[in-house]
Amino acid sequence: MKLANLETFVHLARLRHFGRTAKHLNTTQPAISSRLAALERELGVQLIAREGREFHLTPAGHEALRVIEKMLGDFDGLKLGFTDPENVAITLRIGAIDAIVQTWLPRLYDRLRQTYPGVQIEIVTDSTVNLLHHMKNGELDITFCLDPILEEGYRSFVVCSYAMSWVGSPKLVDEDRIYTVAELGTMPLITFQRGSPPYRMIAPYFQDESVLASQLSNSNSLPTMIRLAMDGFGIAAVPTIVVEKELDSGDLASVQVNKPFPPLTFIASYHPVPGSLLTERVAELAKRTAAEFCSETVPGLAWVDYNLR
C-alpha cells in the first residue's frame, strides 16, 4: 500500500475536487484518479461515489478516511519526532484578519522563526469570508478569523475575544456625553465589510432600538476604518485594544454609549491532513501566544475563555 495513495485520498476528501487536489500535490488529475483507483482495488471497496462533476464519500470512504488520517498522523508524528526543529523545511501558510495581525500575530511569527528557522512563513491578510474560502481550497494551512469552518474534517477553536468600542474624531465626538443608540444612528457610521461577522452585528445593535443608520460606509480593512474615523468621516466600532495608541494620543475619542457593542471572538481553523502535524503545533503555540498577550493587556480589553477551547 503506497503512502502516496493514502495521502492523495485524504487530500481529495478534504478538497472535494480532483483539479485542486492535483494542483496541491503538484501532479495531474489522471494521476490522482489512478492513485484513488489503486487504493480502492487494494481495499476492495468503493471510496467515493460520483454524481456528474461532483462526488461524495461512501460509508466505506468515511471509515477509511478516519483510519487513514490516524495512520498518516502517527507517521507524521514519528517523522517530526526524529527531526531537529532547525531542519524542518516546509512552507507554512497563515491567514489572519487585521485585528490579529495588529496584536499578537507578530509575536507568534517571532516564536515560529526561533523554533523552526528553516520554515518559510507566508502570511495572508484578508477578510474572514476570503480566508475561509482560501482554506477550503487548500491554499492556507491555518486561519485566524471570526468564523469557524463547520465542514467535516476541519478543526476549529476559540483563540481569544476582544472588547469593542465606538470611536471617532474628537471634532465629531463629545467625550463627556453618553450617547444613546438612537443618537448613534443619526451619525455617519463606518463598518466592516457587508456580510462579515462584525457587520452582521450592526443591524441587530440598532434594530433592538428600532433605529437604522442613515449614513453607512463599509470597508474590508480595519486600518482604513480607523483612518476614516480619525479624519472625521464617521464613528466606527472597532476592537479597543487596536486603537489604544490613537485614544491615548487624542487622535481618536471614545464614544460613551448606554449600550455596549458586543465583543468579537476570534477562531482558529485548520485541517489535519498528511504533513500537517507542524500546523497542529502552530495551533497550540497560537493558543499560548494569544493567552499570554491577553494576560498582559488592560483587564477587560482582551481575554481567553478556556471553557471554549
The overall strand count is: 14
The radius of gyration is: 23 Å
Structural class: alpha/beta
Please report the distance between the alpha carbons of the first and last residues.
37 Å
Low-confidence stretches: none
Protein name: LysR family transcriptional regulator
Organism: Microvirga terricola
InterPro entries: LysR_HTH_N (IPR000847), LysR_subst-bd (IPR005119), WH-like_DNA-bd_sf (IPR036388), WH_DNA-bd_sf (IPR036390)
Pfam families: HTH_1 (PF00126), LysR_substrate (PF03466)
Task: Describe the secondary-structure layout.
Elements: H1 3-15, H2 18-24, H3 29-43, E1 48-51, E2 54-57, H4 59-81, E3 91-96, H5 98-101, H6 105-115, E4 120-125, H7 128-136, E5 142-145, E6 155-162, E7 164-168, E8 178-179, H8 181-184, E9 189-192, H9 197-207, E10 216-219, H10 222-230, E11 235-239, H11 244-249, E12 253-257, E13 264-270, H12 277-295, E14 302-303
Parallel strand pairs: 3-4, 3-5, 8-12, 9-10, 9-11
Antiparallel strand pairs: 1-2, 5-13, 6-13, 6-14, 7-11, 7-12
